[in-house]
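User: Modeling request: complex.
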Amino acid sequence: MLSYRPGSTLAHRLDPRSKLLVQFGLAIAAVAHPTLPWLVGTTAFALGTLAAARLSPLAVLRSYRVVLAVLALAPVVAGVALGPPWFRVDPALRSALHVGRILPVLLVSAAYLTSTPVRDTRAAVQRLIPGKPGQILGIGMALVVRLFPLVLADVREVRDAIHARGGEARPLRDRVRLLAVRSLERTLDRSDRLSVALRARCFAWNPTLPPLSFDRRDYPVLAVGIALSVSPLVPV
Amino acid sequence: MATEQSVDLVDDDTVGLFTKAVLLAALTAALAQISIPLPGPLVPFSLQPFGMFFAGLVLGPLWGGVALLLYILVGIAGAPVFSNANAGLGYVIAGQGTGGFLVGFLVGAVVAGAIAHRSIAPKPVAALSVPVQVVALTAAVLVVYAIGIPWMSFVTGLPLTRAATVMAPYIPPDLLKLGIAIAIVQGGYLAGR
Amino acid sequence: MIAVSDLRYRYGDVDVLDGLTLSIPDGQYCLLVGPNGSGKTTLVRHFNALLTPDTGTVTVDGTDVTDDPVVARTRIGMVFQHPRDQFVAATVAADVAFGPENLGLDRDEIDRRVETALDAVDLGGAADSRIDALSGGEQARVAIAGALAMEPDYLVLDEPLVGLDWPARESVLDHLDALAADGTGIIVVTHDLRDLHERADRLVALQDGQVVLDASPAEALDALPDLGIRDPRC
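Assistant: Request completed. Predicted assembly structure:
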């Protein structure tokens, strides 16, 4: 799976805010025009971002293989016809072009993921969204990342406990109900303890924000991000 | 340097709702990793929708929405929280053609919360009438498909009817999940919350 | 000084605290003991306004804590029983910084406090470690550092030793001794006095929401079995 790897590539050194903008901008641009030249252009740009993160395109494609394999079925499904000629090329090509637009989005998000630690995205969210919503989402993201492994372990423990007591013999309905309800109870118990701990540590609306530094090299990246975001307005 | 007098504490009720939203986001992420294999040609039975169900019923429209939004945001940030430990904006947009279902869960939680609580501030689950909760959960499932199928059609270039056909095998298990969620509500299992 | 006066708190049909009066001077090392349900945890959660009294008052140096919870929570650091549920970040230094960040301190001051707090619990080298990769005893020390970073006058620890093995227990207690020697007031809530009774200045026992014993630990030990608490010398 794709995840953050420490490094010192150009992509690593950029501010997460400019990287986020480029990522969203490219997603907007990529789906704007389902035409071949546009697809070639956005894909070339995406390959550029992989280079900036020193990622091998083949390795990235390999880690997306399940997603890509499923997406590749879409043109086949689109082309199948229930009578002669049994397969129609036009809708298949149309679908292939649509699915193809997704490829650059996947590549750019790979470049982002591998070059940006989660805490940087959290810091960017906290700084980009003003006031209370930014604080809730920023701190919230940090907490979800922190608690996800614990809750996942809880859910697996509940599942194993159900199995250990012969739960497989019970109907699916009962098993799922037990698992869902018991997991929810344990999760909410954690919530009660966390909320007391946050209050004891003066959880505030106006904390010192996590450090981020917007460098000179971020300005051109920011400009590219804005250009990509408005590119659907350009007639092709 | 700011002085201590200027510290603007988050009030106690908000902290309680916030930590519940955080934990339900983590629970949604955890349930997305758990699937029960079913016999024969049936698709594996994922527990992911229960995150949406619980978020809407326990937290109402605003904080239920915050829970699912946090889930999607940490996934975009790179935490492996989507099905099969996937992550990234690319997955939210495309997935396996199924990215729209993630956004559908978010809107579904908001819709379920709005129907169940009819106010921003959630009431205790015990104070909600069972038929209203059943309507809320059913509406949430409809919303997920109402967003997921057109989204799939947009991403893959498949006509709407064909995208709906592709998703058809997922409908029976989702109806079963809806039935289980309704049984959980009717059995009073959430009433303490 | 923490001063509790005629404190009453009801939960459901139970008087958890039933007219309790107690004062704890600065710098004291105080053990708060009692059987389950005696009101220990409820009492200490009033010290920093995590709970609000039904009647009665809690003051820190004369200021009612409910009037200024920020001051109460800054002066009284609290460490809870389940350290894993009180961490807010995945790594050590990021978690310890959470309290000072909420106070709005500038980044240099936050970094200084994090470093000092981690040094106080001998975890200076673990600043970038993942909390989940640490042992139980180290996690307890990170939780203590998180409270210390607020530079409190008192540290309240609610059952801090549950689930720790002997070396981890000794290590946590030795660090508390060092903090006490530097003048920090230590208040330990516990039902297990092993290794603690020789270290503390004072032992307060609660039963049914009232103080039933208040003496030096040496004097108090003989009376403990009658209160349902194990004599740590046995």
